[in-house]
Design a protein that fits this description.
about 350 residues; Helix Hairpins; 4-stranded antiparallel sheet; about 15% strand
């Protein structure tokens, strides 16, 4: 039982003892309310009393108050000292501060599970400067979150209340990467019910879990083992390709970012072609693909391709080049899109 809860219980017990002592002296000794209350408080505070009760019942009541009330009061004081000395107060205030920060987040991500996969996801979000909240029930995982200054909620990620507290309905996406496939199914299902439009990426350890996760509402299902196996095979069969991909994804010395941009309605780039905008010459970034609203990808767009509202451009470039591209696509007088 945490000290704060113990303090509240002890306070309630002391209150009941005072009420019982006051009522007892009123009945046994015939005291008034104030005198009975005063006598009770004086006894349990170990200050003593001026005049002993006249009746045997009053004396027995006084002994009972001293034996029970004083012990309870001393235990309560020791609990209060423990509360402050052990840092529980600071921890409680820290949790309130964290809850406030989480409540202010918008367009953030939820990382459900902070094991080896979840920690890597969190590391990538941190590197990209994206806000996120970790949800985990493992004390060791929570300790790692605290050590790295990561926003977190301790609890079951499949719990609707926990998901709502983490800002699910304001979130941009959710990563379900709990160790168990069954748990990931429950997390995905809970999140999909609460937020039908949320983008959900789920982890699957076994191939037979793919279909279950997709039916539960996952937009994409990923197997870390399958990805790891393909990467190892690529390193053996096509080492130069692997080195190039490592550079493109930011793992090499030259940091390149692959980004997607959805064309806003008021962008000055709408109605112009890729060659008209001179994207490569102006920003240094490269347009890899264009996806029209219908969902079809043009993986090798013609320079004469005209950009329209809600077109999605897949681009690659350094952080500085991507920033220049954001400014090129941004609506007039608005902040750069992302």
């Amino acid at each position: 039982m945490i000290p704060l809860k113990r303090i509240l219980i002890l306070a309630a017990i002391i209150f009941l003892i005072v009420i019982a002592g006051t009522a007892g002296f009123m009945l046994v000794e015939g005291y008034g309310v104030i005198d009975a209350f005063f006598t009770t408080v004086v006894l349990i505070s170990t200050v003593g009393m001026g005049t002993a009760p006249a009746s045997v019942g009053g004396k027995l009541l006084a002994v009972a108050l001293i034996a029970g009330g004083v012990g309870t009061l001393i235990y309560a004081f020791s609990t209060v000292i423990e509360f402050f000395m052990a840092g529980y107060l600071g921890e409680m205030l820290g949790e309130r501060s964290m809850s406030k920060k989480i409540s202010e987040l918008e367009n953030h991500y939820l990382v459900c599970g902070f094991g080896r996969v979840g920690e890597q996801v969190a590391r990538e979000f941190t590197r990209a400067g994206e806000p996120f909240v970790v949800i985990d029930s493992n004390p060791e995982s929570i300790a790692r979150c605290k050590a790295h200054g990561i926003l977190f909620l301790e609890g079951n990620a499949a719990d609707d209340e926990i998901l709502v507290r983490a800002g699910l309905k304001r979130a941009r996406g959710l990563v379900a990467c709990v160790d168990s496939d069954a748990d990931n199914v429950f997390v995905t299902l809970s999140a999909r019910v609460l937020s039908p439009q949320l983008w959900i990426v789920a982890r699957a350890n076994r191939e037979e879990s793919y279909g279950k996760l997709e039916k539960a509402g996952a937009n994409k299902v990923i197997s870390p083992y399958a990805i790891g196996g393909r990467e190892m095979a690529t390193l053996m069969l096509k080492p130069i390709v692997s080195d190039y991909l490592d550079v493109v994804t930011g793992g090499g010395e030259l940091e390149l970012r692959v980004e997607e941009f959805t064309m806003p309605a008021s962008s000055p780039a709408i109605g112009k072609s890729i060659v008209d905008l001179q994207i490569r010459q102006t920003t240094g970034a490269i347009v890899l693909a264009v996806r029209k609203p219908g969902g079809k990808f043009d993986t090798n767009p013609d320079p004469e391709t005209t950009l329209a509202e809600k077109d999605v451009l897949i681009t690659v470039g350094t952080p500085a080049e991507i920033h220049s591209l954001e400014q090129l696509f941004a609506p007039t007088g608005a902040s750069p899109v992302s």
